[in-house]
Amino acid sequence: MQTTLMIYDGTAPADSDVPRTGGVPLAPAGFTWPMCGCGGPLQFFAHLPVEDGVLSVFVCQNDPGACEFWDATSSANRVHLFPREELQPVAVPETGVTLLPVTSAIRNHVVTLDPEEVDDHDDDDDDDDLAPDPYDLARSGWKREPEERFGKQREVLGSLGGSPSYLEDDRVPACRSCTRSMEFAAHLEEGISARTAMNLGGQLGYVFVCRACREGAFLTD
């Protein structure tokens, strides 16, 4: 069982083409900053290079809690899958909540776990019918020493690929263009500190993508 964790790796230049949260989005020429149904610009959350392009995640933070950024069908979030070539920094709107205060670099770290060897996870689980979740196991064990209850979990900014952690099947979004179920692409965590954090309402974020239509969706649990 392998999980690719996204680990905080210090700061990064705001317009760098590296995996990061925050900074300025990179997009093809002609791309305009996405707007929320409330009339304000969305905040840029993450630049995630993947095998077939770059995922760019935007979420409304103009009036947190007022717009339904947690809903995949809401206008309060947007996910784009851009081709990797000829990307350039996007002009940032002059008003609205658009950028995170800090650009956080990400490094990918593959964790291999055997659920049979995890002694304490099932003992702490309130529901014995739930199978151990790969992302939950990898995150909870990150930098944890033997007999230590907690590790440095705030360093984990999410994961790439795999399956959505404990998300019910009926919440998997459908592509607005082709109506097929989207493919899970990434988890997003709020961040290592209040200063660098994405505001997800204390929840785990899920990024989905339709690779055929190059469209995405975002929701929280």
What does this protein structure show overall?
With 221 residues, this protein is mainly beta. It has a single domain (2-220), classed as Hypothetical protein YwqG fold (Roll). Helices cover 5% and strands 31% of the residues. A ten-stranded antiparallel β-sheet has the order 6-5-4-2-8-1-9-10-11-12. A two-stranded antiparallel ribbon has the order 3-7. A hairpin with a 4-residue loop joins strand 11 (205-210) and strand 12. The longest helix is centred in the middle third of the chain and has 7 residues, at 134-140. The chain is globular and about 50 Å long.
State the major sheet. 10 strands, antiparallel
CATH class: Mainly Beta
- Mean residue pLDDT: 91
Using the 3D structure, state the CATH architecture: Roll
Instruction: Report the helical percentage.
Output: under 10%
CATH topology term? Hypothetical protein YwqG fold
Please give the alpha-carbon distance between the first and last residues.
23 Å
Give helix and strand order, one letter per element, not per position.
EEEEEEEEHHEEEE
Give the DSSP E fraction (strand runs of 2 or more residues): 25-35%
Categorize the overall geometry: globular
Q: Nearest-angstrom radius of gyration?
A: 17 Å
Structural class: mainly beta
Number of separate structural domains: 1
Specify the number of helices: 2
Strand order of the largest sheet: 6-5-4-2-8-1-9-10-11-12
Low-confidence stretches: none
Please tally the β strands and state the result: 12
Biased composition (Acidic residues): 114-131
Protein name: DUF1963 domain-containing protein
InterPro entries: YwqG-like_sf
Region (Disordered): 113-144
